[in-house]
Amino acid sequence: MYGSSTQIPTIDLDTVTKPISSARGMPGLTYTDPQLFAFERDNLLGKTWAGLTFVSELPLNGSLLPVDFMGLPLLVTRTNEGQIKVFHNVCSHRGMTLVSEPKDQSRGVRCPYHSWFYDLDGMLKATPHIGGSGIHVLDDFSCAENNLKSVRCHLWMGIIFINLSADAEDFADFIGPLEERWAPFMGPAGVSQLTVPSAQGPIAIEVTANWKLAVENYCEAYHLPWVHPALNSYSPLDKHYNIVAAKNMSGQGSYAYTLCDVAGTELPQFEKWPEDKLRHAEYISLYPNVLLGLQVDHAFAMILQPLAADKTIEKLQLSYLADGAESNNYQVSRDAITESWQQVFGEDIFAVEGMQKARHSPGFTGGVFSPVQDVPSHHFHGWVADQYQAAQNQ
Ligand code: FES
Ligand SMILES: [Fe+2]
Q1: Which of 111, 129, 141, 143 to mutate for ligand 1's pocket (most ligand atoms within 8 Å of CB)?
Q2: Per-residue pLDDT tens for 355-368?
Q3: For residue 115, which atom of ligand 1 is closest to its CA?
Q4: In CATH, 50-156 is 2.102.10.10
Q5: Can you tell me the distance from the alpha carbon of 41 to that of 56, in angstroms, rounded to the nearest whole number?
Q6: pLDDT, tens digit, for every residue of 217-238?
Q7: CATH 3.40.190.10 fits 29-42+176-392, yes or no
Q8: Which residue among 10, 175, 197, 378 has the highest number of C-beta atoms inside a 10 angstrom radius?
């Protein structure tokens, strides 16, 4: 059911995969061209595990949520048993888009065109008048062969991940290196200890920029002193270190994240977090499109939802430990943390949008990297180039 319909571009990527001191970044066209955007959907995001949306966007059983995935209409359902499923948002009859608005308290999906009905598991249950007026069943028409087409999905840290091509590695292998890296902080229970406040779904920020720029910007701490003076005051650049965690993960960490001291926040903490590392924090880009932040008393995930080559919605979801997510006693702390991250991501908008504009310039030939500060972003460029080259060599 899945196939790449997009043309494979001929782009010379040899300079991108060079060692950092002589490398150039991805060419400007890969940030601006609609055809390459579709190419990336099928060959980068679609071939691995990409973040689609958050479970918190379907808080009730019996919910439907349509989501655009780089131009493909998808449908997330939450069954009456609370299971999350993902389907192509396309009616099996004549290909009508089934759901155009989020909906709660639904028993299923009724197509607005000829009223075929699917349950929340995607099973075709009714085909009214298919055999003429009053004849709803035909002997030679099989409902079972016309269910909704499902998309492989997996839940982790409140994120609904999808693998469009259906043949990526197991999710456990995909996430394994990160879970291993963070086990000394989180303990064996890992991300299952984190809870999203029921009153605070994701915060959306729309940027006029390609999704890759948001990843690149998140990978490095180099820009902190100039773009994030407040953050730099409680988590300064010189207390940061680079992270290259696996082939599909890079970012930066801080030895001195001290918002709790500056803003007086006080929240439940990970029980297994080492006493001598209470001010440690890590910020990792999980390629292709999920940005993660881990502190002793909260975590966040950002899903980059690419809408077009030059347009991305950044969805930010915070989560906390124990009763830190719900108790009124922690409302002030949660507000301070939310405000701090909204400020940080807000400050980044001009940077990613400014880079996007300049990607149209003939004066841009991929840019160069600081061999010290840009190690994590160079790693991301290498990963992107590898995926392009793998597709080109198919
Ligand atoms: S297209 Fe959906 S019922 Fe006809
Ligand atoms: Fe930033």
Answers
A1: 111
A2: 999 999 999 999 99
A3: 3
A4: yes
A5: 24
A6: 999 999 999 999 998 888 888 9
A7: no
A8: 378
